[in-house]
Amino acid sequence: MDNGLKQIWQGGETAHGGWLSLTDDFAASVMGDVGFDYLVIDMQHGLADYTQAVRLIQAVAASASVPLVRVPGNDPAIIGRILDAGALGIIVPMVNSAEEAAAAVAACRYSPAGARSWGPTRAARIHGDYQTHTANDTVLCIPMIETAQAVAAIDEILAVPGIDAVYVGPADLSLTYGLPPAGDNAGPFGEAMDAILSACGRHDVVPGIHANPELAQKRRNQGFRMVTVCSDDQALARGAAAMWRAGAPLAGR
Asked: How far is Cα 125 from Cα 130, in angstroms, rounded to an integer?
């Protein structure tokens, strides 16, 4: 049982990924063919429900991209179901304390490392040697750091055993500092980023972040090792707009 993301990080490299906000499994397959190291199915702000997420996991797992899912919340029931469906990692939104981080880890791990219930209906069929210890070693638990409260507690959060990476949500993080919801900001936002990166270094946790093509190089230079550079809906919009402008010289009249 392997997880390509762990292998990338163990090699000291940076992983680049895409984001799936739509529900179409063919579109997910197209994204999988691009060559992203990982693809994240978004059940929090994206359009997929559980049944649709299962189909998207199937589509991504057929590619070389590692299937991850951002769940709607820190709920062990949905985390367990998504892992049973074959996701190799869970991104948990709005984790603001060590207690919430510990709950996320427990939902991702079988006893004695956690409290996940046994029943990997699809995961055991597609991931080979699916035992409790191999799953615990392979599945990624990735809390989101996206509030000023979480930044203030970052060392306590990252001290929780079983956290593989954290994922910064820059828009929500900006909001909690009284800034516009954007991918980048100055002032306290920049200070928060520095604090997160420093803490990840102290605790040997991979820092990840939601970005875009324009911000990707900056994030790599800062030290982020999990950088999301593209989403399916944005790729569709940008690509269609570019093709429209190229094919219709009077576009925008």
From this structure: 8
Per residue in 5-21, pLDDT (tens digit) is 999 999 999 999 999 99
203 is catalytic: no
Distances (CA, A) of 190 to 16, 83, 148, 195: 22, 34, 12, 9
Tell me how many degrees the CA angle 134-136-138 measures, rounded to the nearest 5: 65
Among 136, 188, 129, 197, smallest CA distance to 168 is for 197
Are 158 and 200 a contacting pair, CB within 8 Å? yes
**Domain-wise residue ranges, the chain:** 4-235
What's the sign of the alpha-carbon dihedral 13, 213, 193, 227? negative
Give the Å distances, CA to CA, from 111 to 78, 128, 132, 135, 234: 18, 20, 8, 11, 40
Structure tokens at 206: 């991979």
Q: Tokens representing 192?
A: 């928060």
Residue 220's Cβ-side half-sphere holds a number of Cα atoms within 13 Å equal to 14
| Terminal Cα-to-Cα distance of the chain (whole angstroms) | 55
| Residue 158 pLDDT | 98
Pick the catalytic residue from 16, 45, 133, 210: 45
pLDDT < 70: residue spans in the chain: 250-253
d(CA 138, CA 6): 8
Contact yes or no for 189/169 (Cβ under 8 A) = no
- Distance between CA 14 and CA 25 in Å, rounded? 27
DSSP designation for 136: H
Q: Which fold has domain 4-235?
A: TIM Barrel (3.20.20)
Query: Are the beta carbons of 65 and 115 closer than 8 angstroms?
Result: no
